């Protein structure tokens, strides 16, 4: 049984028209699904719909069999089950690293402070930031801020993690430290839905590639099948923009 089920999802804006046009997708527990596609094709919008940041005009989203789309009264509870890491970090500048990570579990989940702080410290050590617990966001690099954001999402113990272009705003030398954390999470069996333009990373981390164009799923397959033998002309054209080395297929 799928952990996440999306059925005929429709999202539109008055000024922009249809963004998602009947998207259907399922994600199993422990599966890592990477969503690829050109800019403004609906990738980030899909994640925002899953996390309840956008309402939908048709279809539905289920988490573990429960409908979570267009919830109003208890969407804050749903968001505790669906962790999301954004491109822009969204850390509170007036709180230090430890307090940024513990705020959600303390306020939203009403957990014991000692328990939450202990878990947060372990998570910060896990993402390589044990020595930055008392630092403030302004004192961190972009890569460090993003790793704090990942630790913050994990501290809520979500059932699924959504990553929306989390390396897009980072300098090239900082990208690897964030991707390494995400690779470790994948190896641990975390259920993840990732939007990225990092092609080598996508091939390495994904159990499945989902390619979206103009608000529709055009193709989905295993990573090597997608990168080295795409079935659709649209996917072939998309991949031609990247210097993906086919000689690495057998590595």
Describe the SSE topology:
Elements (H helix, E strand, L loop, with lengths): L1 E12 L3 E12 L3 E5 L6 H8 L7 E6 L2 E2 L7 H7 E4 L11 H11 L5 H14 L15 H13 L5 E5 L7 H16 L4 E4 L3 H7 L2 E6 L2 E6 L1 H6 L4 H7 L12
Describe this structure in words.
With about 250 residues, this protein is α/β, with parallel strands linked by helices. Helices cover about 35% and strands about 25% of the residues. The strands form 2 sheets. Strands 6-7-8-3-9-10 form a 6-stranded mixed sheet, sandwiched between helices. Strand 9 and strand 10 (about 215-220) form a beta hairpin. The longest helix is centred in the last third of the chain and has 16 residues, at about 170-185. The two termini are about 35 Å apart.
Please tell me how large the radius of gyration is. Answer: 18 Å
Assembly category:
single chain
Strands in their spatial order, largest beta sheet? 6-7-8-3-9-10
What percent of residues are in strands?
15-25%
Overall body shape? globular
Integer average pLDDT: 93
Poorly predicted segments: none
Q: What share of the residues lie within helices?
A: 25-40%
Q: Main β-sheet, in a few words?
A: 6 strands, mixed
- Secondary structure: number of strands: 10
Q: Tell me the structural class.
A: alpha/beta
Element pattern in H and E: EEEHEEHEHHHEHEHEEHH
Instruction: Supply the number of helical segments.
Output: 9
Alpha carbon gap, first and last residue: 33 Å
